[in-house]
Write a structure and sequence with these properties.
By secondary structure, the chain is an alpha/beta fold. It has 2 domains: 2-24 and 96-202, Ribosomal protein L4/L1 (Ribosomal Protein L4, Chain: A, 3-Layer(aba) Sandwich); 41-91, no CATH class. The chain has 7 helices and 6 strands. It has helices spanning 16-19, 25-39, 98-114, 131-142, 157-163, 179-184, 192-202; strands spanning 2-4, 11-13, 118-121, 148-152, 169-173, 187-191. Helix 2 crosses helix 3 (98-114). It is elongated, with a radius of gyration of 27 Å.
């Protein structure tokens, strides 16, 4: 298939195996869910009664003191005692193999093409680090003010610095794209180099 280059009569030929495959909603859902789960950090941890500091000696004898009976100062009902059901570190990782991930990415790219949410430009040239000028340039390319993602082959410091104060425009290179960031942006702008590099990566 062919994609039209923005502001040009020429077209770029891309592989149907990457940009024209049947959408598999369940696979995409599974990969997105896995990606979001892997971002979670299960580092919360509490101490149970066996881990808090303190003596295991019985505080006082069982009867005759007038106190309620107690067996340890580390009891959960005592101040500075252990937690009854202590939370422990856990992993939320959901493993997805590389083949499934690549197939999901092909589905997403194909759906973006079908919905005309992908724009191809020859290159992204940013001469000055000016947020206002950069925003105007991207708005002219996308022809709207929706949430936009700009993908380049390599990181460009000028474009990154120009866009970091813009809440609706994000810039990344091909190694930083993922299923979630592609789905949540209304328009995705690719340079020719970037889209060719992605095609080469996903076609194998």
């Amino acid at each position: 298939m062919e994609l039209i280059i923005k502001n040009s009569q020429t077209k770029i030929k891309v592989s149907d195996k990457v940009f024209n495959v049947r959408f598999n909603g369940s696979l995409v859902h599974q990969v997105v869910k896995s990606y979001l789960s892997n971002l979670r950090v299960g580092t919360k941890s509490q101490k149970n009664r066996s881990q808090v500091s303190g003596s295991n000696r019985k505080p006082w004898k069982q009867k005759g003191t007038g106190h309620a009976r107690s067996g340890s100062v580390k009891s959960p009902i005592w101040r500075s005692g252990g937690m009854t059901f202590a939370t422990k570190e856990r992993s939320y990782e959901k493993k997805i193999n590389r083949k499934m991930y690549n197939n999901a990415m092909r589905c997403i790219f194909s759906e973006l093409v079908r919905k005309k949410r992908i724009i191809v430009i020859p290159s992204l040239i940013v001469n000055d680090i000016k947020t206002k000028l950069f925003e105007k340039m991207i708005t002219n390319i996308s022809e709207n003010e929706c949430k936009t993602l700009v993908v380049t082959k390599k990181s460009d410091e000028r474009s990154i610095l120009s866009s970091r104060n813009l809440h609706r425009i994000n810039v990344c290179n091909i190694s930083q794209i993922n299923p979630v960031v592609l789905i949540k942006h209304r328009t995705v702008i690719f340079t020719i180099e970037a889209i060719k590099a992605i095609e080469e990566r996903l076609i194998t």
